[in-house]
Recover the amino acids of this structure.
């Protein structure tokens, strides 16, 4: 017999209870999630990577259900972890939207020209990119042919 778990959709108020924080020692993000019962209580939701198995890991939460190993939860995790995951998805979507907006706002250039440590303005960029190579005269070409032509090796002059 198959069992199904009923999960309610996560609301914006629940996502707003999540605060993303980055641990400055490990540079790993985690979430502090406010309790529904008491706004003064916050639970720490963290993802721990498994060093033996890349791409695998587990979540921890400091709520009472998390401290008991999620055995009383209807799903694999408590609601605080589900809220933190939803907040993480919202955060990733915002970063993606910001990157797209930045990409749309910047002029489409195939090259980056830096002069004096800063990106060149449009006039300088156009002048440098559309510059024509020098046109050599026939006399200059003949001079260079004579100058750089291969000569036989002679030990004695």
């Amino acid at each position: 017999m198959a069992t199904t778990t009923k999960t309610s959709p996560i609301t914006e108020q629940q996502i707003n209870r999540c605060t993303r924080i980055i641990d400055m020692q490990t540079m790993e993000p985690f979430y502090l999630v406010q309790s529904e019962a008491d706004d003064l209580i916050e639970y720490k939701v963290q993802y721990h990577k498994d060093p033996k198995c890349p791409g695998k890991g587990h979540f921890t939460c400091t709520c009472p259900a998390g401290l008991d190993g999620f055995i009383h939860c209807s799903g694999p995790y408590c609601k605080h972890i589900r809220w933190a995951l939803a907040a993480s998805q919202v955060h990733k979507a915002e970063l993606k939207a910001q990157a797209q907006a930045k990409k749309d706002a910047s002029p489409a250039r195939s090259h980056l020209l830096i002069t004096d440590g800063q990106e060149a303005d449009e006039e300088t960029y156009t002048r440098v990119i559309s510059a024509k190579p020098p046109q050599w005269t026939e006399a200059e070409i003949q001079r260079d042919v004579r100058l750089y032509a291969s000569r036989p090796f002679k030990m004695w002059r």
Notes: The mean pLDDT is 86. The first strand starts at residue 18 and ends at 22. The radius of gyration is 32 Å. DSSP finds five helices and six strands in the chain.
